[in-house]
Amino acid sequence: MQPRLKSSKKWTPIPQDVVLQIQELFKENFQKELQNSRIIAEGRIYQEEILLRVGYIENGRLAQYNFEVSMPYKLTQEDSALTCLSICVDAAGSLMSEHFDDPDALELPYTWTESDFEGKKIWVQHSTENSELAKKASQLLDNEDDKLVYEEEDLEDLADSEDEDPDDDSSGGPKGPLH
Predict the structure, then answer these.
(1) What percent of the chain has pLDDT over 90?
(2) For residues 75-90, b (16+ Cβ closer than 10 Å) or e, as one string?
(3) Do 14 and 42 form a contact (C-beta atoms < 8 A)?
(4) Is the pLDDT of residue 173 over 80?
(5) Mean pLDDT of 166-170
(6) What is the pLDDT of residue 44?
(7) I need a surface site. Which of 10, 95, 148, 151 has the fewest CB within 10 A?
(8) d(CA 172, CA 28)
(9) Average pLDDT score over the chain
(10) Is-contact 10 153, C-beta < 8 A?
(11) CA angle centred on 140, ends 134 and 145, rounded to 5°
(12) Alpha-carbon torsion 144, 145, 150, 151, what sign?
């Protein structure tokens, strides 16, 4: 999952008991549509946004159909994390309902797009990333720990290091065995 805001670096996962409640809610509300599927819910709490992904994966398939919602978040008495998360859950449920009502009519963007939901400003996008495969790949690469707070990789530093040529000797000295 990629956050909407570039400033979103450090995050805390939505607690597992809340994730399980979200999954149960979607299983109950979409029992008929999801009878041959598994529901996936996950989310992150950043300093300035709440990010929620609710998706489903049909049995025997690799592609996971995800509805992702991002909402601005600041710790105030009016907008607690739970209130923002509740709005995100409702928005994801609404998107899923529209998807199942007419799958060809709903065209979700693949990039964050602003939307109005119940008088609140939210951002939505669609993805087909398989959460379990992404997590297993991360574990294989030893990038995943059980922490309370995580930090996004600085993509600019990563891009800079990929641009560097390990064989480049900018000192002007001889390169390779033939020089």
Answers:
(1) 55
(2) eeeebeeebbbebbbe
(3) yes
(4) no
(5) 47
(6) 94
(7) 148
(8) 68
(9) 82
(10) no
(11) 80
(12) negative
* Cβ pair 7, 48 in contact under 8 A: yes
Assign 137 to helix, strand or coil.
helix
Cα separation values, 25 from 30, 36, 38, 71, Å: 9, 17, 13, 20
Question: Model confidence over 86-116: pLDDT tens digits?
Answer: 999 999 999 999 999 987 777 888 999 999 9
| Phi and psi, residue 166, nearest 5° | -65, -20
Q: Tell me the residue length of the chain.
A: 179
Pair 13, 42: CB distance under 8 Å: yes
173: tokens are 């000295």
76-87 mean pLDDT: 80
**Does the pLDDT at position 3 exceed 50?**
yes
* Dihedral, CA of residue 76, residue 6, residue 148 and residue 122, to nearest 10: 50
